[in-house]
Amino acid sequence: MKLFNRVTIIGLGLIGGSLAIAIKKKKLAGEVVGVSRRKTTIDRARTLGIVDSATLDLKKGVKDSDLVILTAPVLKIIDIAKKILPCLKKGAILTDAGSTKEVIVKSVEGCLPAGISFLGSHPLAGSERSGLDHIDKDLFKGAHCILTRAGKTNKAALSKLKRFWGKLGMKVEVMSLKKHDKALSALSHLPHAASVALSNACAKKDLRLAAGGFKDTTRIASGKPELWRDIFITNRKNIAKDIDALKKELTKIEKALERNNSAELLRLLRKAKKIRDSI
Amino acid sequence: MKLFNRVTIIGLGLIGGSLAIAIKKKKLAGEVVGVSRRKTTIDRARTLGIVDSATLDLKKGVKDSDLVILTAPVLKIIDIAKKILPCLKKGAILTDAGSTKEVIVKSVEGCLPAGISFLGSHPLAGSERSGLDHIDKDLFKGAHCILTRAGKTNKAALSKLKRFWGKLGMKVEVMSLKKHDKALSALSHLPHAASVALSNACAKKDLRLAAGGFKDTTRIASGKPELWRDIFITNRKNIAKDIDALKKELTKIEKALERNNSAELLRLLRKAKKIRDSI
Questions:
Q1: Which of A107, A274, B15, B151 has the most neighbouring CB atoms within 10 Å?
Q2: Which of the four pLDDT bands, split at 50, 70 and 90, describes residue A126?
Q3: What is the mean pLDDT of chain B?
Q4: Nearest C-alpha of chain A: how many angstroms from B142?
C-alpha cells in the first residue's frame, strides 16, 4: 500500500539498503531513490535492483521527495541534514535511523525551515555486519522502532511515520528524546562498551581457545568503530553512568570471589539468569 | 574404531548425553554405560537409545569399565570421584569434563589408588542450554579439548585419552593445570562474569527494548547457576584478577566519555574490533 510518492534513502549500507528493498517489497512508495557518497555503491544498488534510481548528488536525490530517510553515523546525519534542509519540498518529512536521538533532533530542529517536518526514528535492527552485501528485506520485521517526540514534532508527520515503520513489520513506540537515550544507553550502548572492554582485556590471551561464550559476548565489538564512536560521543553522559553501574556489579562478583562467598555468587548468578530468561 | 571395551559416563546432561551418542556413533567403545542420579533421566536415556545400559547405582555403573568420564558441576566431580575410586578396576582411566582443573586434579590425585589413572580433560564445548533434550552428536566436532599434565599423569593413559578426544573431532592440547585455569579464566569465566554483571546492571531497565546486542552479550548468563558457582569458586583468584583487568578497560572508555575524547574512543573501538575479527 503506497504511503508516499517518492522516498529517498541517504546512505546505502546495511540499514539503508535493507530499507530500500523492504519498502519496494511492501510497495510503500511509488519510487525509491538511493543516495550514496560512493560510485561503487550506487552501481551495486542499481545492479541489485533495490532502488528505482541512485545518485551521488544529495540535492538532486532529495528533490521532490515526500520522505527522506538519513542512514549514516550519528554526526554525519546532522551534517547531511543541514545540507539538504533547504532543498526539501514543502510538506516533506525528514527522518533518520540514528542510534542516539537528543543531539541529532536538537541540532536539526535548530535549523528547520517552515513547512518541513523532522522526526527522529530509531529502528532497533542491525548487525555487526555492514554494507550492501548483508542487506536483508526482513531486517526490520518484528523489531522495535522508537519515534521521538520533541519540541517541533508535527502530529500528522508522526502519525504517517508510525504507519510507515509499522508497515515494515516493526513494533512502533513514541518516547521523549531523554527517555530514548537513557534506555538505549543501558540496553545497547553499555553492552557494546562491555564487549569492547572484554575484547581489549583479553588482547594478550590465548585467543585460539576462545569458545562460544567469548565469541557471543564480544560479537558486537566487530561493529564499525566510526559508527560507535559517534554513538558514544552523542550519548556520553548516560553511557558513562551505565559503565559505572556495570563496574559496581562486577565488583560484587569480585568481592564474593575474594571472600570465597559461595552463597553470594549463587545469588548473583541466579538473579542474572532470571533477568536474561525473562527476555 | 574401538578404543575401549566399556565406557561409563557419569552425569547425563548436555555434555554427558552428547558424549554418549558421539561415542556410539564413532564406535569408540564396545559398550556405553550411563549413570544418573535421576530415574527420569535414566529412563529418557534408555528411550533415546544413547546408552547400552543405564543405572542409578554409581558402583555398579563403573564396575569393569576401562574409561570413566565424570560430567557434573566441578565440586560434584570431586565428590563422585572419591566415591568411585575404590570401585574401579585395575588399569582403568578416570577423567572428567570440568571447566576448571587445578582443584579437581589435585583433590582426586590426593586419593588415587595404585593402578588407576586420573587425568583432567576439558572439552571446550557446551551451551547455555542443559539436559538430554539439547544433546548433539556434533557438539565436540572442531572444538578444542585441553588435557592437563599434573604430578601423577600416566603417559600411556594420556596418549589414549588424546586419541579418544581426537576421534570425537576435537583439537587436543596438553597443558599444565595452572596454565589451563589462567587461560580459561580470561576466555570463558570472565565473559560469564561480564554477562552476569551486565544482566544485573540492567535489572530495572526497559528490557522489552533489548535487541540483538544485549541478547548476545548476555546469552551465557542463562547458564546453570550451580554449575557456574562451582567454576567461579574453584578458579576464584584468576577470575578476580581478570575482573579487575576488565574494570580497568571499562574505566578507559568511561574516562574518554567524560573527557569527550573522540580520538581515544576510536582507538579503543578499533583495537577491540581487530582482536575480535582475529578469532
A1: B15
A2: confident
A3: 96
A4: 11
Determine how β-strand A29-35 pairs with β-strand A4-10: parallel
8 A C-beta contact, residue A252 and residue B199: no
Say whether B146 and A209 touch across the interface (CB within 8 A): yes
CB contact under 8 A, A269 and B229: yes
Model pLDDT for residues A74-85, shown as the tens digit of each residue: 999 999 999 999
Q: Do residue B222 and residue A276 have CB atoms under 8 angstroms apart?
A: yes
With b for 16 or more beta-carbon neighbours within 10 A and e for fewer, the B197-213 pattern comes to: bbbbbbeebbbebbbbb
CB atoms A200 and B257 under 8 Å: no
Q: Which three cell numbers stand for residue A139?
A: 531486517
Q: B192, B181, B168: which is closest to B25 by C-alpha?
A: B168
CB contact under 8 A, B240 and A221: no
CB-CB neighbors (< 8 A) of B212 in chain A:
126-127, 220
Report the distance separating Cα B53 and Cα A209, nearest Å: 34
Dihedral sign from CA coordinates of B277, B244, A232, A248: positive
Q: pLDDT at residue A28 above 80?
A: yes
A192 CB neighbours in chain B (<8 A) are: 213
Asked if B191 has any chain A CB less than 8 Å from its own CB, the reply is: yes
Backbone φ/ψ region at A27: left (φ over 0), alpha (ψ -120 to 50), beta: left
A194 pLDDT above the threshold of 80:
yes
For residue A234, what pLDDT band results from cuts at 50, 70 and 90?
very high
Residue of chain B minimizing CA distance to A122? B209
ipTM of the complex: 0.93
Q: CA quadruple B20, B24, B27, B32: dihedral positive or negative?
A: positive
Longest Cα–Cα distance of chain B, Å, equals: 68
Read off the pTM: 0.93
**Contact residues, chain B, for A246 at CB < 8 Å:** 197-198, 201, 250
Phi, psi (5° rounding) for residue A53?
-150, 160
